[in-house]
Protein: Ectonucleoside triphosphate diphosphohydrolase 4
Organism: Phrynocephalus forsythii
Amino acid sequence: MRDKNRKPVVMKIKPGISEFATSPEKVSDYIFPLLNFAAEHVPRAKHKETPLYILCTAGMRILPESQQKAILEDLLTDIPVHFDFLFSDSHAEVISGKQEGVYAWIGINFVLGRFEHTEDEDDALVEVHIPGSENKEAIIRKRTVGILDMGGVSTQIAYEVPKTEEVAKNLLAEFNLGCDAHQTEHVYRVYVATFLGFGGNAARQRYVDNIFTSTVFRNRLLGKQIGMTSDTPYLDPCLPFEVEEEIQQNGQVMYLRGTGDFTLCRDVIQPFMNKTNETQTSLNGVYQPPLHFENSEFYGFSEFYYCTEDVLRMGGDYNATKFIKAAKDYCATKWPVLREHFDRGLYASHADLHRLKYQCFKSAWMYEVFHSGFSFPTNYGNLKTALQVYDKEVQWTLGAILYRTRFLPLRDIQQENFRGSHSHWRGFSFVYNHYLFFACFFVVLLAILLYLLRLRRIHRRRLPSGVSPSLWIEEGLPPQKIPGDL
């Protein structure tokens, strides 16, 4: 959708609803501006047949189940009172990282047209053997792209894998995007891995916690006071040069000062990848199927885009050599100079001081996740970082809608959800349908009787005088079909 100025109809708010873990009664009020925005752009007459989904991701996944439930209950209770979108209990849930990765993969491949049938020889085609269809010929279709998505809390990777590749069920998603369940030519087999705690903000927090713990221990062991006063700060290579920061834990304050050493920063965050010595593993020792890098294509979203574009202005085609040079230069620039550049508007419009402060760390983290964690070669040339593709904003939410409404027309979804969310009406519907049937039956029967009576009157008017009606009817029938009892 686009508004009257041809701008995408998109609205975002921060922070996420997980921030209301201790005050769930405020969640509905917080997201009402989003719902009001939707209500204004969806025609009023279409509200009751427009499905509304509230799908929660990593921020909610890390909360205790009791807090998740309280937040969802507030949404399910309050939203139907103020909005008449198609919204049932099954439409509000905390989705898994695997689901989120699948939805992101569907979204980008849909926008790129990789699900469309093609006979164009210029398209990159691939031969696919569909699971469960051993007796059928292989299908030739467009090659799909893989996705990399790094949020604040988690990181995902997803790409299509051949039938011959053995993958554990918890890392594999098989789904059908055809028009119906029997249309197997659009069955996809996708490797999906999600890494909680490997998002940009969560990684920084793990890094800082480690600095605090190790420094306090070293101070006690050696009798030093590093980081305990502003005069003896801990020198952090992952903060821009001369940036000062204070962190607190358990009532203690630690002082950090940036040295802006991008190369050293990469070295010190390496252990946080939790890599193992085993082959074919990625972050946290998780299995990763072989990737044919020369025949692959990937899109990077969220932090992959922000890290390359917001400050470094290098979004789009990714080049490792150029990225490292730009990141090194940024980290080594004095903080007052970076602030001056910010005040002059030299960075992206949505870049803020938080982005400036942690750009050095996040650049190093993104680089290490991509090249060390996921083992992409440094000369890999088929990664594009993006926020919009073909002037369309690509988010996992697009894939979620496509997946959840892929088989049924909206009217069928409406009926299904109506039955699910209004189960106490089922008895009423059953009786109502029977009454309707009998009413229709009697109407049809009455129409037939009225029609026959009218024919009888017309026939009487046409009879010659002195001839009985019954005799005229008999004479009007073929001789072999005259009933003997008339």
Q: What stands out?
A: Residues 37 and 303 are 26 Å apart (CA to CA). DSSP finds 14 helices and 16 strands in the chain. The mean pLDDT is 85. The longest helix spans residues 426-462.
